[in-house]
Each structure stands twice: as structure tokens, then as C-alpha cells.
Amino acid sequence: MNPAVHLDSITKRFPGVVANDDVDLVVERGSVHALLGENGAGKTTLMNVLYGLYEPTEGTVRIDGAPQEFDSPRDAIDAGIGMIHQHFMLVDPMTVWENVVLGNEPTTWGGLRVDADAARESVRELSARYGFDVDPDARIEDISVGVQQRVEILKALYRGADILILDEPTAVLTPQEVEDLYAVFEELTDQGKTIIFISHKLGEALRAADDVTVLRDGINVGTVSTDEVTREDLAEMMVGREVLMEPAADPREPGERVLSVSNLHAEDDRGVEAVSDVSFEIRAGEIFGIAGVDGNGQSQLVETITGLREATAGSVRYLGEPMDDVSRRERIDRGMAYVPEDRQERGLVMSYELTQNGILGSQHDAPFASSGRIDWKASRDHADRVIEAYDVRPPDREVTAESLSGGNQQKFIVGREFERDPDLVVATHPTRGVDIGSTEFIHDRLLELRAEGKAVLLVSSKLDEVQGLSDRLAVMHEGAFSGVVDPETVTEEELGLLMAGESPDDESVETARVYEAAGDGPHGGPAADEDDDRRNGPAADEEVDA
Amino acid sequence: MSRIDAIARSIREFLRTFVDLSVAERLLISVAAIFLSVVVGFFIILASGRVAACETAAWTMPVTGLGFCYDPFQVYAVLFNGALGYPFAFGEPGLFNPDWTPFNLSLGLTLSETTLLVFTGLSVAVAFRAGLFNIGTQGQLVVGGLATALVVVAAAPVFPTGRLGGIALIVIGVFAGAIAGGVWGAIPGALKAYADANEVITTIMLNFIAANIAYVLVLEVFRAEGSSVVATQYVPEHAQIQPWFFPGSADFAEAALLAGVLFVVGLYVLIEHTTFGYDLRTSGIQPAAAEYGGVNAKLTTVRAMTLSGALGGVGGAVWVLMSEGRWIASVPDLGFDGITVSILAGNNPLGVFPAAFLFGLLKGGALEIGFQTDVPTELVAVLRGLIILFVAMPEFFRMIGRYAGLDGSGPASGATDDSAAASEGGEADA
Amino acid sequence: MRNPLNEVHVPVVDDLIEDDYVRSLALAGIALAAFLTTLGIGGLLFPDSIAGDLAGIVFNAGTATATARLAAPIVLAALGGIFAEKSGVINIGLEGLLIISAFVSVYATSLVGAGNTVLGLPAIVVGFLAGIAASAALAGVFGVVCIEFKADQIIAGLAVWLIALGLAPFMSTVFFGGVNTPNLGVSVGWSYSAAMVVVATAASWWTLNHTAFGKHLRAAGENPKALDTVGVSVSRVRHAGVLLSGVLSGVGGSALALSIGQFVGSGETMVQGKGFIAIVAYLFGNYNPIGAFGAGVLFAGLDAMQVRLQQLGYAVPDTLVQTIPYVVVIVVLALVGRTRLPEAAGEHYETED
Asked: For chain B, which residues score pLDDT lower than 50?
């Protein structure tokens, strides 16, 4: 029997970059196959070739043994391939059934009316067959991310997909939802479907897949069966060298109270409560970590502390003073540094040169401004200092922020913020989309800041990062802290339960997150979003560096 | 860094300052848009000349022998040459017109329009840079102009009639215009900032409201006695901005144009080299980043709209004090033309001046077209619309550039490739 | 900004209309109806009071026909605007589409000659169709400029308005010797305008909510990539949306001019900002054709009332009364605040393949 998918010596080149170099991939029908690799290893590019989004420079795509030439996803869909992108392709204000049948609507009255009943029925039927619990009439914006993912799977199944490609399917899920997803995988493969999923977490590849193919720098390092391989082997295959352990923070005597948050409430942009009754404090020389699945109110909490969002109740005190009526600008002036979650929306003005970006937040202050005029000389010198100290490539203050790769954009922001001589550093996902070398560098700098007696609030969805660096660790779930734990003693299982909003008393959940490489989440910027690489040009360099 | 590197670097910096790539591209697109509009206008003249009725053909197309009522070559010759007062004598041996003097009526009219458009163009440009689409410069000009006329007429008796008194009145009048225009501009700014009301719609509505209220006020309260049109009293002669060299009938004063140039430079410095300008630009390009950088977005919105309105108001003051000598209900479309000027200038204050001059030419030329040809002067309004349309579609010109094979050597793409290569090299050993 | 009316709950209305926004509009409508009823009763009881006069205006047949005539361009352009914006293209050039169709409809009618026919169609029908075609053609150009050449939609829309604002009086002067055309001597009755408005509103509502095209339109405006990845061409859907805005505005502009039998090209032309009021009408109606219809009729009604007020000799300067709708628009916009634009409106979309 022919394999369901056979990618035969696929090479894909972009101007200046080889994303896939002579990659072979064989996936058996009815199996779950993990495509494992670090960011920029070429996983998404390879899957985009299979899905008809990219044409391979060389090589052949075979489905059930037959060579195929896909000009567009349409052709791939016709050949029975469905893709669930990392960013869901769903229309938020529309209902589940409208999304599932989009583009293939059943109609009556000679095409003048969409047959909503027939569509609902199809969705119900499919959803029952695979054990999904999905209400066809729910709006996408009202359902959880886990259910949205199922709607994406339903969309592919409705179009007759036999082979499902999932891009980083667990990035946005709680540990519990991840388990549910694995159950869905089993249900699907039992009924003859083939699943390929992209991941950079080797624990989840071992747990959910039958076979694993590891990509590194666009090359297939090897395909192994999960029965015959250890974590250590996989880690070395991925990284190409022995894996370094995270630097452990030595315990320290914390100093004065820098930030104290009490009974804080805040709403998100839609007016829904996103932070409910959060209290904590951070002392000088202490790193306070917040873990949790993205979207559980971390962003709103951080924005409220840094002055970008108003609290609906409760208070934030900084250096002993209430911050209720203190503007964002005033907070910056009082020594609050902030590495924002979204570097391309907030952290940098993409069309500005680095010189201009270097003074963002300090544009009113000496030495960059005097009596309202900007001192460009001082601004240029400052940009040069940051570039030099934080190893920003290319080392040229005159390039625009948009022409830097994601990792270098992040380094520049981190440098600008850390060099403010702050009392409090708020760092959200500081290493998201950043290569391993820079990740280590940023971690070291955070520990140095701590040693210098700064207070640090670290928010990250990477467990190893927050666990390894923090002195105390809070887990956030649905806007509240589900627990504050000692990172030294807490187990992965306990954290997993806390992230799902349960208290870790008796139940234990198997989560196998041993090592997460320089991982990225759903908002990782251009480097993480390989779909965009071709358009963004320069960002494609991340393909080869990791 | 070695000495040679340093020199190479400073040379590159020098070049970069003077050949800013995006500005160069912008300029190229503006010129191409003007050219394309002229070409399309050519065919519009031909087509309408074909259907219009006339005794003898003004122009006969070569080869085909088709006759047209309008001669497009003559129209453009009259348009541009006439706007300058006919410095060129086409077909004559000297090519130049020996009787031409720079201080002629037509050029005066052209420069008068240019002066007014500098102010309205700057008004729109300032708002644009803050990410706000101020369609309301027209209304701000109407309100500002009226305030100027009323304040100067009311204040005139208090001041001596001499030169100094005149200057004082002019200064007071301009301030009155700026304040009134600023307040009128602040309204949509505040509505945008605090009620999230779309400024495009509110400014359009405020234009209608300004025109109507000003009309009624003048009609019912401030109308000059015995005036056959709806207008205020004339401001006293000595409080009008007088020309130095140009004939008085041109309604143009060199001093006003000079002030316009100072405004252009001042706004350039304000936008590019001050913290206020930095905040304004950042809010315009990336509001979220501006807020992150400590910019009070709401306040910046209100400030930018107030400044924009004040500039529109100054435009109104100049219109009253230089052109009309009074506020009159038939206010020309200076505010709308300001939008065109700003867009053509790429919203860069330095670009506003040449763009305003171009539209000044069109305006001056339109008058000549009315005198010299049978072509309706609305043609110029069509050209104005076409220029905006073409300026709005840079991608179109880039496509043409690509088809013409200019891509590889194009400045923009070259820069991208460079930086891509640079960052690759940088990351390879990370 | 919170809409206070959202806090009010009326069981029956809640069931009928899911959308909070439309519900609050409906409630406002009910309140208005209640006010008018009170006014009517007051007018009957005290015929000599101001209420009596006002009631006379509101319930006057002349006001009703004038409202129908004035509502046609506003409502039809608003419906067109919905189609364009739902697909992701903000069409601020509706005013220009109304102007060009108003002129061309009159010109084409006069070209055929009132009373003559072409292929059995009376001149006025030919004029109507020509007006629609002209508007659709201009909208088509706008669509190409925005979708293919990735122009800034606001600026391109502004250009459409300015081009039409110049071109219509220009052509009028070429053909008729002045910016105003002579009166044709024939006109379209108000009942036709009213019928077109009602039919177009119903058809638009159906198209948007119950056809596959309507769903695609919505997806193109909300998440074009979602539409693209299921194999539907985003740019084709957007072109269709923009063309429909041209066709509907064309009907509106032709109806406006032909209901009088003349094109007036002086100043802001006879369209006088109705295209902009149409934008407000559909924002006000939250992209729901029925909401846009309600808002459009409201604005037209205000306009019609001020005409009647003057006929009754109230010493209010007419210009001031004409200002009322504009002020209302600003007040309403300030109170309602931001309406939710389609997620991808104003953005260009590049296909992946």
C-alpha cells in the first residue's frame, strides 16, 4: 500500500534562503505524524508546499502514490488535504455552521438561498461522528479556542479531507484542552484519517504521534518511531548539540517593596472582565513570574500595571505611591520599563529608523529632548549604544524597524527598556520568536537586573522560562491567580492543573513538557509566522538561524 | 571603526539625507500623477470637443481629419502660460514674450491662490500626519475668515489709521481667525478622542454647518448696509494686506506669501524635529506604539485637530484680509483644494509649497481658459480629481515601473535587498 | 462607549432582533412613533398651536411625497455603501456616484428626447438605465484602483467625489451651455422612488443574510484569508461589492434627478451631501439594510419637514433649518460613538498563490 503522503526530495528556495533542502517525508495512512523542529527549521514551509500555498522549487508531492501538482490550496483540498493554520481562518462574527460551509454552501431556490438547515444538519452529523461537542449556531467569537480548533477540523472534514495538517495545534490550548485534542486525533485516525502536526515541543510529539520527523535548518534530520526514541535523542536531533539547562537563579534576600497590586480588576477591549481580583507584590531584587495559557488576562494585567489600561477596581502602588491617576508617560519617567507582548504593534514603530525607535518613551526627556526640540545627536548615540550592547544585527541605526528580523527587533526593544535604568521591569514573553543564543542572553540580562536590585515582573507562556528564572511564580487562569507557588518545588503536573484552573490536590495529569526550545506562541511576529516570510523578505532570515 | 569606514559612513549619511528614498519615490509618483491627469484631461477635452457644437473646428486631428471644437494643445498652453501672464510666445521667433513682466495680473492671481492654498494645505497635512483625515479645513476657513472680518471691523476704530495701526489690526485679525478656526477644528478632534466619532464624517458635516451658520449670521446680523450680496462690511483699507509690486486687482500680497513660506518651514521643523512632532507622527502611524511610548493619544488628537483648524482659520484670515477685504458668502473651495495639495505633497510641509503653486497655476489658468477658449472652466476641477485619484494609487506606477523593467534598479527595492542581506549575515552566527 | 439603550429589555423585541444595536434603534423608532402619535393627538385637539402646525407638517401628504423623493438617493446609496464596506472596501465616493448618475440620467433622457422611445423603452427609462451604467462604471474604476492598485480607499473615494463634482457640471456646460440642465418636462413620480427604495432594501437584506454571496461578502470584509483559503476569490467578491454600490447609487442618483426632471450643477450640485448622509445612515443602521432604510427615511423626513416649515411662513431662516440634519448626524455620532467596522475594511488583501 502506498503511503498517504510522500514528499519526494522537496527543495524550496526563497530569494537568499533555502527553506527546505531535499526533504523526504513519508506518512502512512491512519497514523499521526509529528513534524518537529525549532522555529525557522522549515516546518511550516514544507507543509505549505503540501497544501499548495507554495510551489516546490524541486521535488514531487505524492498523495496515495500519485504525483500531484498543486497550483493553489483549492487543488490540495480537492486531493483530500485539509490544513488547520496556527491562526484560525474563521470569521469571528459568523456562526459555526456558516464557517464550516463557507465557500461550499448548500443552496436552495436555484442558488438564491443558503440552505441553513441542511448545513446545520451536516455540521451536527460530522460533529457526532467524531465525538465533537459543537453547537452549529454558536458564534465563533463566543466559543473557546479549543472549540474553535474543532470548527477548523470540521471545516476540513466537511470538504472531504482525509489528510489533516495542523500547524502548532497546542500553542493556544490549556493542558486539558491538549489532552482533548489528542483524543480527537485518536478518533480521527481510528476512522482512517491521516494527521500531520507541526510542533516545536518534543514532549507533545512523543506523546501524541506515531512517528516523528525532525527538521533542522531546512534539512530532514531523520524520521523515527516514537516507540524507539528517547527525549534526549530527539532534543539533540532538534538542536544539533547537547541541550543546555536553564540557568538556575540563586536564592536572594529580597529588598524593599517596589510594586504592590491589590484586588485589581480590569476589562478587555470588549468590556468583559479580564482581570478579577488579583493581588501580589514584587520586591527589589526579585523576579516574580506569571505563567498561564495565553489569553487568561495576563495582557490586561500587565497593561493595567504599565498604565495602558484603566483598572475598574483595586489599586496598583509603585514605589509606595498609588498609580491611579498617574499617566503612562509619568510611569515611564518614574522608572517603569516595559517589554510589550506585541513588538510590532506597540514596542516599535515599524517604519521608523532605529534612531527614532530608540527614544520611544523617552522622547520628552533629557538627553534626547531639551525645551521641546529633539536632540538627534544624543538619539543617534543612544541607538548605537543599544545596538552594540544587545548585539542587534545589522548594527546600523539607520535601518527601519520593519527590516529587522523578529529576534533582532526583540533584542532592540529589550535593550532600550533595560537601559532605562528602571526600578521595575515588566517583561512579557521577552524571548518569544527569539533564537536560542539571544534567548540565553536575555535570560542572563534579566538575572543581572535582579542582581542589581531591580524588581522584575516576568510573564511568559513558556513554563521552563518562568520556572527557571522566577523567585516566586503565579499561575493565571481566567483573570485570577489560581495559585502562587515556589518554582523550585512545584511539579509540571501541578502547574498544568493550575493552568487549567484546578487546584492540584489529588488528581494528576500527565503532561510531558520537558524542554521547550525557543518557542513561540500565536503572536510571534513575522519570524514565527512563516506564511508571511515571503512578503516580509528580510524576516525570512530566521529560517536559517535557529 | 577604521577611518575609511567612518568616511564611507558619513558620505552615505549625507546621501541619505538628501536622497531620502521614500521622498524621492513620492515625488516621482506625484509628477507621474500630474502627467497622467494631463493626458487623461487631453482626451476629455477632445471627447467633449467632439460632441460640443461649434461653427468651425478649433482643431483638426492629423491623419483622421476629424474636427474638434476644442483644441487641447491650445487649452493647455493657455492654462499654464496664461497662469503666468504669458511669459512664452509660442510660434514667435523669440519664444519669450518681450512685454512680459513678472508683476502681471495673471501671475498675481496665481500666487494669490498659491498663498491661500499653502495655509489650507498645511492644515490638512498636519492632521494627516497625526493620522486624522481633516476634510473640515473648508469649514475652519469659513469660520476663521468670518471671525477675522468681524474682529477687525469691530477693532478698527480703537486703533490709529496709520501703518502701525494697520499692522496691529492685521495681527489681531489673523489671531482671531486662528482661534476661531482652531476651536472649530477642536470640535471634531474632541469628538474623535472622547466619543470615538469618525472625523471624516464629522468634519464633512461641520463644513455644511459652518457654511450655513456663517451665512445666516451675516445675512441676519452682520450684513453690510446696502450690500447686494451676503457679505460683511469691508475692513478698512489700511488693515488689508497690501501688495508691494503686483497690481491691486490681483488680490495678492507678497507679504502673505512670505508668511506662508515661514509657516511651511515652521511646520516642517515642528513635525520633524520636536517632541510634539514626534508624538504627532507616532500617533499617526502607529497609535498603539504612541500610547506605549507615553503619548496621550486623545490629547494629541485634539491638539492636532486644533492646530489644523487654526491653520485653516489663518487661511480664512488671509482670504479676508488679502483677497476680499471682507467676508463674503461665496467662499471658494480652498479647504477642499487643501486636501488635494496635501495629498500631492505627500503630507510633507515642504511639499505643500510646490503643490500649492501647481494648484495656483490651475486656478489662474482656469480664469484664462474662461477668457480665451470655449472650454468650460470646470475642466480644472476634473483635473484636480484625477490628480488625487492617481496620487492615491502608487502601486499602479510601481507596476508600470516593473513592466518597464525598472524594478531591479529601483531605489526602493534595492534598499530592501540590502537590509535583508545585512540582517542575514548578522544572524548567521547567532 | 456604552449604548444606554442596550440596558433596556423588551421581551418581544429581544426575540425578534438579536443584535443589540439594531434593537436600540428599533426602540428609538418606537419612541419616535410614540412622540409622533402624541403630536398628532395634540394637533387634533389644539389645531391652532405650534403642535397643530407641526402635526400638519408631519402628517401632510406633501411631506410624505417629498420624503419619498429625498429618501431615494440617501437610502439607495447607503445600501450600496453597505455592500462595498461589508466586502472590505470603504466607499466614501458615494456622493460622486450620485452626482454622476444624476447628470447622466438627465442627459441620456434629453438625448433620446422626452416622449421618444428606444427599443420600446420610454426616454426616461433609458435615462435611468444610463445613469445606473455611468455610476457603475465609475464605481468599477474605483474598485480597480482600490483592489488591484491598492490605493488608499479614503483618498480614492474622495477623488471619485471630486471628479464627479467637476465632470458633471463640465459636461452640462458642454452639452447644455450651463451647469444646470434645462428641465426635461417629464419626471418620475414619487411612488416609483418609494417602491424602488422598498424593493432595494428588502433585496439587499435578503442578499446579505440569506445568500452564499452575502456570506462571502461578509467573510471578505471580516477575515479575507478565511475566504481565500476555502477557494473563493477575495478580490472578485470585493469587486462585486463595489460594483453593487455603483449600481444602487446609480438608481438613487437617477431617481433624484429624474424626480425633478433636471440636473442642478451649481455649488455642491443638487446632490448636496446626500452621499455623505448616506454613509452616516448605514453606520447608524449598523450595516443592516433595514436600519439604513430607517435612518435614511428619518434624514429625508427632516429635510422634507424643513421645506414645509418654510412654506408655512415660520420666520426661521431656511439655511438654519437645513442645518438641522447635519447637527443631528454629529450629535448621534457622538452619542452612539463607534460602530463596529468590518475587521478588514480598508485593508488590502494579497492572495497567497
From this structure: 1, 15-19, 407-430
State whether C162 and B385 contact (CB < 8 Å): yes
Residues A166 and A135 in one domain: no
Interface of A with B in 383-442 (CB under 8 A): 393-396, 398-400, 403-405, 407-408, 435, 437-438
Q: What is the pTM of this model?
A: 0.79
- Report pLDDT for C143: 95
CB contact under 8 A, B385 and C92: no
Among A364, A392, A421, where does a domain finish? A421
Range of the domain at A110: 92-161
Buried b (16+ CB within 10 A) or exposed e, A99-131: bbbbbbbebeeeeebbbbeebbebbeebbeebe
Q: Do A103 and C222 touch (CB under 8 A)?
A: no
Give yes or no: residues A308 and A444 share one domain.
yes
Give me B7's grid cell. Answer: 568616511
CA–CA distance, A1 with C9 (Å, rounded to integer): 63
Is residue B297 within 8 angstroms of chain C, CB to CB?
A: no
In Å, what is the CA distance from A258 to each residue of A254, A281, A330, A334?
A: 10, 8, 16, 12
Distance from C-alpha of C39 to C-alpha of C50, rounded to nearest angstrom: 10
Please indicate, yes or no, if residue B401 is contained in any of the structural domains: no
Cell digits of residue B282: 507616532
Q: Does B8 touch chain A (CB under 8 A)?
A: no
**Interface partners of A (3+ CB pairs, < 8 Å)?**
B, C
Q: Which of A345, A376, A545 sits opposite B427 (nearest CB)?
A: A545
User: Which tens digits make up the pLDDT trace of C4-46?
Assistant: 444 444 444 444 444 555 555 555 666 666 666 666 666 666 6
Q: Which of C92-96, C202-206, C325-329 has the lowest mean pLDDT?
A: C325-329
Size of interface A-C (CB pairs under 8 A): 71
- Chains A and B form CB pairs within 8 A to the count of 124
Shortest Cα distance from C240 to chain A (angstroms)? 16
Which member of B48, B52, B396 has the closest CB to residue C149? Answer: B396
- What pLDDT is attached to residue C34? 63
Confidence (pLDDT) at A251: 59
Residue B54 belongs to some domain of the structure: no
* Radius of gyration of chain C measured on its C-alpha atoms: 21
Question: Inter-chain contact C231–A74, Cβ cutoff 8 Å?
Answer: yes
* pLDDT at residue A457, as a whole number: 95
Which residue of chain A comes nearest to C2, CA vs CA? A271
Residue in C235, C350, C352 to test binding to A, most A beta-carbons within 10 Å: C352
pLDDT above 90 (res C84): yes
Q: What is residue A266's predicted lDDT score, i.e. its pLDDT? A: 93
Which are the contacts of A8, defined by CB distance < 8 A and separation ≥ 6? A24, A59, A60, A61, A62
For the segment A259-303, what is each residue's pLDDT rounded down to a tens digit? Answer: 999 999 999 887 788 999 999 999 998 999 998 877 788 999 999
Instruction: Name the domain count of chain C.
Output: 2
Query: pLDDT (tens digit, 9 = 90+) per residue, A24-42?
Result: 999 999 999 999 887 667 8
Segments of chain A scoring below 50 in pLDDT: 242-246, 506-546
Report yes or no on A342 lying in a domain.
no
CA distance linking residue B142 with residue B209, whole number of Å: 10
Kind plus residue range of the DSSP H or E element containing A286: strand A286-291
pLDDT score for A166: 92
Contact A414, A338 (CB under 8 A): no
| Contact check, Cβ <8 Å, A372/B426 | no
Nearest to C211 among A73, A93, A113 (CB): A113
| CATH code of C94's domain | 1.10.3470
Residue B303 grid coordinates:
491638539
Assigned domain for C332 exists = yes
Q: To the nearest whole number, what is the mean pLDDT of chain B? A: 83
Least Cα separation, residue B40 to chain C (angstroms)? 12
